[in-house]
Amino acid sequence: MSDGETRRVVYGPVPSRRLGRSLGIGPIPFKTCDYSCVYCQLGRTTQMTVQRRDFFPPSEILKEIKHAVAGDAELDFLTFVGEGEPTLCRSIGWLIRKTKEITDIPIAVDTNGSLLHLPELREELSGAEVVMPSLDAGTAETFRRINRPHRALDFDTIVAGMEKFRQVYRGEIWMEVMLVKGLNDSESELEAIKRILERIEPDRTYLNVPIRPPAEAWVMPPDEEAIAMAHDILSASAAGINVVEITTGESGEFSTSGFTNPEEAILAIIRRHPMREEQIVETLRKQFRYRAPRGAVEMDREVEASMKRLERSGKVKRERYRDKTFWVIAAERRGKKE
Ligand code: SF4
Question: Quick check: is 94 in a domain?
Fold first, then answer.
């Protein structure tokens, strides 16, 4: 399953505020999704599909999971996530079941929730400890504007699927709401989101704002007052929506364990998760320090050379977003400024 990187499907661990040290399992190819969210940190969707299938051999994915789990004893979560919508993988249920046979590390599924209306998917996800669906809109119109779904998808059907999932699923549901300035941060839209959350009754609700370069350059987080209003409206729910936190930043270290070459590790991570430039430097430093002790000057030289090699490869590029420099995969990914 290699395309030049040591591992294709399993990556990280990456730091996650809510999941701790989370090993990512991305069972689908780059930007394969049934949404094309304006805020997507992977850029615009290039493979728009609602057809579930095995994009990679499931047995190969399982082999990678086994290998990664055996090599890292300090994982908090194994998370099906990645380069698009993981529930498009037809074997996700089989993979969850088989993974449970080899480890008791909790499993999370980070999904847009669009396919939870399928009874078989609701059954397949039953073995995961946590499912994290998205809900960014309270109305079909906003749903179309922010998530830009496949034409076969219907907002009411998706919401009904989430409700049905809640009724049968014994694990925790952590909803994620991405707030985008001018799209879903008005009082009426937030009230509409609240009404849907009251129907779904998630265990937790996380509010996010875009912190990495989005698919569309015009996407911005709401103003502070609008974020505070979102928190107040959702928290004031009579149904007790448990708004856990507002994620406006990130912290923690990226791991490159399991890779023989630190540059491959960087590529594997930013393919799914754009990194700030200082995170790239810190991650490379850690790798070189780990491989052999060396002085600060020598270390700086090696890190610089490594970054130059990455840039020259043409596989990465720098992007500025809200005064920060990020490294992203140099695929066709950015929308034009509108
Ligand atoms: S944010 Fe998630 S659901 Fe939206 S386009 Fe990107 S991968 Fe798909």
Answer: yes
- Residue 61 counted as domain residue: yes
300 C-alpha vs ligand 1 centroid, how far in Å? 36
pLDDT tens, position by position, 36-85: 999 999 899 999 999 999 999 999 999 999 988 887 668 899 999 978 99
pLDDT tens column, 143-176 = 999 999 999 999 999 999 999 999 999 999 999 9
Question: E strand or H helix at 160, and its extent?
Answer: helix 155-168
Q: Rounded distance, CA 120 to CA 27, Å? A: 18
Q: Which residue has the tokens 């249920």?
A: 93
> Do residue 238 and residue 127 come from a single domain?
yes
pTM for the model: 0.84
C-alpha of residue 37 to centroid of ligand 1, in Å: 5
| Residue 308: domain span | 275-329
Mutation to probe ligand 1, out of 31, 40, 147, 219 (largest number of atoms < 8 A from CB): 40
Distance 285 CA to ligand 1 centre (A): 31
Q: What is the spatial distance between Cα 313 and Cα 316, in angstroms, rounded to a whole number? A: 7
| 183 and 288 share one domain | no
CA of 84 relative to ligand 1 center, distance in Å? 6
- State the closest ligand 1 atom to the C-alpha of 34, by its place in the atom list counted from 1: 8
Strands (E), 95-230: 107-110, 130-132, 172-178, 204-208
Tell whether 318 and 170 lie within a shared domain. no
For atom 4 of ligand 1, the residue with the nearest CA is 37
Q: Are residues 291 and 177 in the same domain?
A: no
